[in-house]
Amino acid sequence: MANEPELNFEEAMAALEDIVGQLEHGDVPLEQAIDLFQRGMKLSQLCGLKLEQVERKIEMIVEEDGELRKKPFGTADDESGEMNE
């Protein structure tokens, strides 16, 4: 994957789904299955990183003192991921 251009999330997921389908079908030679598995793991990591990047960009709208305010997703004062009521 090092020589390939970086895929966007949708392209990486589609490639990962294709690999999973090939491996589930079970008719690939062992060496090819190992290569597919390794590529699938790299694609899975890429998708995870892209999701983390998006998560950091998401802003939550919270109500504070009767006003709506934006704050970054997962801020230090809300590490549990739950909104305080």
From TrEMBL:
It holds the Pfam family Exonuc_VII_S. GO terms for biological process: DNA catabolic process. It catalyses: Exonucleolytic cleavage in either 5'- to 3'- or 3'- to 5'-direction to yield nucleoside 5'-phosphates. The gene is xseB. It is found in: Cytoplasm. The keyword Manganese does not apply. Heterooligomer composed of large and small subunits. The keyword Transit peptide does not apply. Belongs to the XseB family. Bidirectionally degrades single-stranded DNA into large acid-insoluble oligonucleotides, which are then degraded further into small acid-soluble oligonucleotides. Keywords: Cytoplasm, Exonuclease, Hydrolase, Nuclease. It is an enzyme of class 3 (hydrolase). It comes from Paenibacillus barcinonensis. Its EC number is 3.1.11.6. Gene3D superfamilies: Exonuclease VII, small subunit. This is Exodeoxyribonuclease 7 small subunit. GO terms for cellular component: cytosol; exodeoxyribonuclease VII complex. HAMAP family: Exonuc_7_S (MF_00337). GO terms for molecular function: exodeoxyribonuclease VII activity. It comes from the Bacteria.
